[in-house]
Amino acid sequence: MTSQRLTTILRVAVATLAAAVIGVVAVFAYNIYLDRQAAIQSTPALRVVAAYEKIVRAQPNNAPNRVRLGEAYAAAGQYQKAIEQLNAAIKIDEKHPGAYLDLGLVAMINNEKTEAIKYFKQVVTLTDAAATRNTDAKRELALYNLGKMALDDKDYEQSVGYFKEALRIRRDASDTYLLLARAFDGLGDSASAIKNVEYSLAFDPNFSQANYQAGEYYLREKNYLKASEHIRKAIDVAPEAPEPQELLKKLGTAEAWVAKVNDQRGTDPAEALTSVKIARRIDPESAAIAVLHGQVLERLGKQEEALVTYKEALKLDTSNAKAKAAIKRLEAEKPKKTE
Description:
Layout: H1 9-19, H2 36-40, H3 43-58, H4 63-75, H5 79-92, H6 97-109, H7 113-127, H8 137-152, H9 156-169, H10 174-186, H11 190-203, H12 208-220, H13 224-237, H14 242-249, H15 254-264, H16 269-282, H17 287-299, H18 303-316, H19 321-333
Helix pairs in contact: 1-3, 3-4, 4-5, 4-6, 5-6, 6-7, 6-8, 7-8, 8-9, 8-10, 9-10, 10-11, 11-12, 12-13, 13-14, 13-16, 15-16, 16-17, 17-18, 18-19
């Protein structure tokens, strides 16, 4: 599955630049694996290029404008021209972190990993002593990408260090927590992997990749209830993705879990509740399993929850006689409100 940052941020940057050509601080790509062809064909990107070419001709010694022109070229897929402008910016201002960051991103796009690492490390060096080191978005992005490349190389200890440093700057970065989880998993630290993937989901509950990863970790730990919760969420958020569907199969069939419920509900209704929840997540369209869920809840004395569950069953199958009868009975049993 792809990283959450695998989006077409270049197009967003282009739109922003087009709306306000002067005075915009544009990070041309959080996504280093962008949809290149869409960006190349982007008419707004070419308009921004033309606008900044004019600005740079008028002010050739202005490093920030050179950087922005470089970003505009990169957004249009003209990477060699982007590199020329970014290098020109560095000749004017050799300590411009934005220029080095963009050169690193272009190097990543062009699969020049050694060059990318060099440029990102330069960003970290230039921002290390700055008063804004703990708030600098450029530093955070450089650290994130250094961590990602270290993770790709299976250098898990180094990647953990980079991701932790990045999180000191941007504490709500759900994608960074996810990659940090993977780094800890590479080190064999399952507890830290699970903790960080849960942090990722705390900031973005609908993050499909993090839900998938959580499902994978919990499945490995044999925590089937938590695994089913996250796998189902991953499927609901990204129904076209094949990986969560494949992971769901590892939980077994809904029928097998229903058989467990029938074995457990007379002797251990709490375990039966766990099993029926798993069955429902495997087959959320089954009215029969929803009715069974309601019956287990009743067995546990959870009448209000049971009523809600029977109503869910009836939505799935409007002719379900068991659901209708249970709803009628439980509503009749509800204490009447006093005036």
